[in-house]
Amino acid sequence: MYPETKKLSSREPVNMNESDLAFAQKIGEVAGTDLNACLTCMSCSGGCPMYSYMDYGPHGIMRLAVLGLKREALTSSTIWRCVGCHTCAAVCPMAINIAGVMDYLREECLKEKVHVGDLPLLEFHRAFLWSVRRHGRSSKVELMGHHKLLTLGSGPKAWFQDAILGTKMILMGKLHLLPSRLMARGVSQVRKIVSGEWLDM
Ligand code: SF4
Ligand code: SF4
After folding, report:
1. HSE, side-chain direction, 13 A CA sphere, residue 86
2. CATH homologous superfamily of domain 8-111?
3. What is the residue extent of each domain of the chain?
4. Which residues line ligand 2 (CB under 6 A)?
5. What is the structure's pLDDT at 67?
6. 37 C-alpha to center of ligand 1: Å?
7. Do residues 51 and 77 touch, judged by C-beta distance below 8 A?
8. CA 96, 100, 105, 111 torsion: positive or negative?
């Protein structure tokens, strides 16, 4: 379970003087979607499985994107807690590519070296890519082991919090100790897709 996210009430009020409409336009172009079509109907947040762990939620991020409030969007926990499931886009009446917006904001966050408040989550993303680069697909047990190593500084509670659940899943055959691996050609193709640059940032 993720730790409780920082709630909106604890954030500074949004400063409209920081509005950067060129940034808003760039998000729309890169995500290939019309941000101005957003109705703020909140259907995306209603369908999002991670909404209760986010500060703004997808509809809030859409508002920040439309207004070009870059700093606010890049420091939000929402962009890192999004798991890219595309449920939001499936329920959006305007068919907005919200997951694409999240992708772009995460990339910008790393490119501009904005401090990611939720560091264990960033390390989880890194551990996932590390596993995919090794096998061409993720190995869940290896992924969790690597994630724990990357977050050693989080303390003993964080190291063992998944141990009971993990053991149960192994016993039920839901987790496999040995990673399954694509054939060599497949692995090299996946490695070309998953560039190492992001891991080194
Ligand atoms: S579901 Fe679509 S239109 Fe509604 S708030 Fe979300 S992005 Fe905007
Ligand atoms: S893609 Fe992200 S924002 Fe959209 S529903 Fe899934 S977790 Fe929520």
Report:
1. 4
2. Alpha-helical ferredoxin (1.10.1060.10)
3. 8-111, 119-192
4. 47-50, 58, 82-88, 98-99, 102
5. 96
6. 8
7. no
8. negative
pLDDT in tens, 91-140: 999 999 999 999 999 999 999 988 877 777 888 888 888 888 888 888 88
Can you tell me the distance from the alpha carbon of 154 to that of 67, in angstroms, rounded to the nearest whole number? 36
Token reading at 107: 């990339």
Reduced to 3 states (helix: H, G, I; strand: E, B; else coil), residue 191 is helix
Task: Quote the tokens at residue 118.
Answer: 């939720």
- Ligand 1 proximal residues by C-beta, below 6 Å: 38-44, 58-59, 62, 92-94, 96, 98
Which residue do the tokens 């990611």 mark? 116
Of all atoms in ligand 2, which is nearest to the CA of residue 89?
A: 4
Q: Which long-range contacts (CB under 8 A, 24 or more apart) does 139-144 make?
A: 139/176, 139/178, 139/179, 139/180, 140/175, 140/176, 141/166, 141/170, 141/175, 141/176, 141/177, 141/179, 142/179
Q: What is the pTM of this model?
A: 0.79
